[in-house]
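Task: fold both queries, return tokens.
Query 1:
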Amino acid sequence: MKIGIDKIGFFAPHMYVDMNKLAVARNVEPEKFTIGIGQEKMAIAPITQDPVTLAANAALMILDETDRGKIDFVIFGTESGIDNSKSGAVYVHHLLGLNPNARSIEVKQACYGATAGIQMAKGHIALNPESRVLVLGSDIARYGLNTSGESTQGAGAVAMVISAEPKIMALENKSAYLTADIMDFWRPVYSDTAFVDGKFSNEQYIHFFTTVWEQYKNKSGLELNNFEAICFHLPYTKMGLKALRTVIEEADEATQEKLLANYQSSTTYNRNIGNIYTGSLYLSLVSLLEQSEQLKEGSRIGLYSYGSGAVGEFFTGILQPNYRDYLQTKSHAELFASRTEISIEEYEEVFQQTIPVDGSTATFDATKDPATIYLAGMKDNMRQYVNKTH
């Protein structure tokens, strides 16, 4: 029985900042952002969008009534959790009107959370072949205004339906993984922005990749020439390329050219949204599938997941017949086309708008937010969510 990705889609807020203009405002050469880290636009979440609404809006794009009835497990990967007790998955489950006979949980391990969700989903489907699992990766990356990490912020979510006999990608069983207790990136519960040792984190990202890649080759007997593409977790789009370059000479020249071309296709969406933490690897996968014209059914795709702190994993999938028929290419193109650029001043104002943490009541103006699901305010220490279709 094949198990894998039956559906996949993403959602990003309707506002963005041009990275050239952000560079000018920060007295930085624009090429440092556009070429140095490879970012062009950065998605900005209004106060009416949080990780729950982003995830729910992403899922809305891909689910139908059959899914709503058959999904009996919702796994929400995030490192931007809104509650220390209640999972974001429960909110999403309700907002989407899913089958009540379901498990709903939240998973946390930095940017690795959605990958952990996929691996749990595979086990659930193996035991329950008629079931479907909704896996979500949703985050708002915040480092603060005028910080070294500001240019690697972003906001968005990816939603995936994992099932038996998937229409898009069948996940192979062999994978390699690694854990080490390191402090390259973290966010204490008292802070709404992250702490990061950027140079150390880059080093560990590459170290983990080369380690799990060697483990994977030993486990699987496969080599780089067996791959059409490798997707990477992308805190910024140049990061994956740095890792790929450490192994690319293992392949013949034709494979090298193919991997590099497909890598560029895999970064298109990320460079226009920014870092979405748990969803970044899967946003890269969506970008590859929808932007690359080289891929064919039967192609093997590698996936490298890295979550600071740190956990890394390398695993693989095989593209299924007619997989392009089940992508959301048109909807995603419309989402990008409908976004609005905001000025640096507007971005800074939005960034500093915060949800009350003292129990006070608040109502948020959602008239400019086109999303179907949004955060309307706070009342009695509870977030007030709205689905416009209900």
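Query 1 returned. Query 2:
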Amino acid sequence: MYVGIDVGTSMVKAAAFDATGRELAVASRPVELSLHGGVVEQDMEEVYGAVVAVLGEVTGRVPEPVELAGLTGQGDGVWLVDGEGRPVRPAASWMDGRAHGLVDRWLADGTFETVFRRTGSAMFPGCPGPLLAWLDRHEPKALDAAKAALYCKDMVFHRLTGAGPATDVSDASMPFLDPRTRTYDNRVVELLGLAHRRGLLAPVSDPVATAEARGEGLPSGTRIANGPYDLPACALGAGVTSPGDGLLIVGTCLASLVATTELDLSGEPAGLYISTDRPGHWLRAMPAMVGTAALDWVLSTTGVRHDEVDGLLAGTPPGAHGVRVLPYFAPSGERAPFVEPRLRAELTGVSLESTRGDLVRATCEGIGYAARHCLEAAGLTGSLAVCGGGTRSSAWMRLLADVLGRPLRVVEGEVGARGAVLAAAERYGVGLDAPAWTKPTAVVEPDPGRAAFYTKGYAEHLDRLGQARDRART
């Protein structure tokens, strides 16, 4: 039995697999996000407790011994811990917006672009650079008390194993890692005013760190590998490793990834290059803030249940009777395929005749247009896989295929946990059949007529977006 652990933003999961990649059991537990005034935080003890609980549940349901475990989780944010791995303060989430003023300043004075040209990382308010700089200005005592500024999965690995603080090249890619040398760029640390906090950055394990469990959640002695974080883990779990092939993760974050062997740091600074376990191979990532959280907000506001979405999409025509949604609902604005910290969502074309179905379809279409924008910017030329919670809606998958104008290789199940296991197996030299583990569950073809309609709609979306970005800057 192989166990994958995926420490998500709102849900912690553990999945057990047999040697062929078949899911044997899945356990999950929700975790809370604290949102107030643009500040988005999480209780680290709650998150870690959820990890231990789901591991205990999933291993208790499958009697086979655990061969090894792979760990992945949400990226970015700042998870400050002391020497024992205990929280110094609540974790600042990747969704946090408190550092938008610093990002605005760095956009204006050229620091933002300089960092991108050196690392391939377009900073946003919820990534470690701005958050650490904000904490250094406003909560220096918290940094003084911390041993390390970790990423989410690193905190969990530290606690599960007792191993020293460590991260991997994928998490470290935003924003301090030089993608060519796969080490921290100390000049970037200096540019962000954090040279005196350099010691908080966890050592980068290349390849990923390994250790044995201490007996919390997993049997004592179980081998664990730490990393990569959820975006590259999903790429592994979906079989996206050949240059030009892409992955769209329809989750809380709408992440678009394209495998590449070319490092191009020109063009508009946006997204990031995620270093992978293979030197010279990267994922060109456009992890947009927009995602299922936008649809969840619309569903909650309109009183629509999740099980009603497919019926509403089927009963509402393309174009949603003129209702349009720019789905940028995150408190920290947008980070891909452009950075606009003050961008906000817009809803237009609504009248007394508009229905809940119109609002739901317009939101799904808006998210689809955002995905197309990201995939084009990331350089998609090959096949496209899709995974995440959004794949549970077959109607939304058909809509996405139409909006994107290309077939979708749908990969269902716990794709991040699956990728974490594949990464762990590679690290430990355990031979698993990756093609069998990553076989798609369905292929959704676009309808030519609807695809042509949405090509025009996409052009209109880009025009509205340009106007909204202009307003956000004034």
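Both queries returned. Flag for query 2: The chain has a mean pLDDT of 95.
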